[in-house]
Design a protein that fits this description.
137 residues, Nuclear Transport Factor 2, Chain: A, six-stranded mixed β-sheet, 3 helices
């Protein structure tokens, strides 16, 4: 099972290394689907505050840049998803996936979109950002 090794949320699109060995198209598409599903599982586990599922999806050396720009290592990241910290989160839509496979690793860049409440009396608005994932076998 592949796991997410590192996850960095960034407003700008992260660029992958310019040189890589490409898999044959059919194999790449199959791997792309698995990598994208892994990201969907991760985002869903975050949204549900499913700490056990998140722990199963990430490696012990997992690190991410928080939405506040702080570096959260494995335990700090998982601590954020403790049951007592659960709160409602907007539904997240994943789109525009870009997958690049490098042997037993894949870089996955997606657009994450979610609806946030508008100011009092205003309709909600859609907010989007880019997120980068590194999946390893």
């Amino acid at each position: 099972m592949a796991v997410l090794k590192h996850f960095a949320r960034a407003a700008a699109l992260a660029l992958s290394a310019p040189l890589a060995f490409a898999a044959p198209p059919a194999a790449a598409q199959q791997g792309d689907g698995a990598a994208i599903q892994l990201v969907r599982d991760f985002v869903d586990a975050e949204r549900q505050f499913d700490q056990a599922r998140l722990a199963a999806l990430v490696t012990k050396d997992y690190a991410e840049v928080s939405p506040l720009g702080e570096l959260d290592l494995h335990d700090a990241f998982l601590g954020f998803y403790a049951a007592d910290k659960k709160r409602p989160l907007p539904t997240t839509t994943i789109s525009e996936p870009l997958v690049r496979t490098y042997g037993d690793a894949a870089s996955v860049i997606v657009r994450l979109s979610f609806e946030v409440p508008g100011p009092a009396g205003q309709p909600p608005r859609m907010v989007s950002m880019r997120a980068s994932f590194l999946a390893v076998r």
